Amino acid sequence: MRWYFDFISPFSYLQWQKVKRMLDAGHAVEPVPIMFAAVLDAVGQKGPAEIPGKREFTYRHVLWQAAREGVPLVFPPSHPFNPLPALRLCIAAGCGADVVDAIFDWIWKSGRAADTPESLAPLADVLGVAPDAIGSDAAKSGLRARTDAAIAAHVHGVPTLAIGEALFWGNDAHEFALACLEDPGLLGRGEMARVAELPVGIRRKA
């Protein structure tokens, strides 16, 4: 299994708490940091924080979900923010669960800035990453390769949990993903199978 995420996404932070429980239970899940903006460009969409009205709703919805799930969540100083430094730090530090956890907590548990290498310098030091590693060619190419692979796998948003070729998008789809993990044939039966071939009745003009 692969779990695609971007630190810019508070819903990724929420689902990460559930992914950690999967890891603790012995499931093999690879965290894959990707650039959400590149995915949006590939599918021709705007992010929810780019749409007036939807932005405020999304922020309130995620705060409500966090409270319901018992997850502490504090928004960083600004949002949307540039997630590249945080994503590249993750790659430079090895993308392990402890690294992903530390960066998410820095941004979404403590509400700290992560939009420049300078703002992340104290965390990079704790993770044992040299300051220049965040902007290194290896970190940049590593992020680009992961994002390109996600787009090729038809990932259209974050967070997304991939179980084989099946993609489960969103924190609120986690229980659905677990159900399909428990019953691998679920998507191939009955109406679940039929909707995969459902004809398109109308298309909006571009």
Automatic annotation (TrEMBL):
Gene3D superfamilies assigned to the protein according to its UniProt record, in alphabetical order: Glutaredoxin
Residue stretches making up the DSBA-like thioredoxin domain: 4-176
Catalytic residues in the record: S9 (nucleophile)
Signal sequence region: none
Enzyme class: isomerase
Molecular-function GO terms, alphabetical: 2-hydroxychromene-2-carboxylate isomerase activity; glutathione peroxidase activity; glutathione transferase activity
Keyword Isomerase listed: yes
GO biological process, one term: glutathione metabolic process
Pfam families according to UniProt: DSBA (PF01323)
Keywords: Isomerase
Catalytic activity: 2-hydroxychromene-2-carboxylate = (3E)-4-(2-hydroxyphenyl)-2-oxobut-3-enoate
EC number in record: 5.99.1.4
Entry keyword Oxidoreductase: no
Family: Belongs to the GST superfamily. NadH family.
UniProt name for this protein: 2-hydroxychromene-2-carboxylate isomerase
Organism: Marilutibacter aestuarii
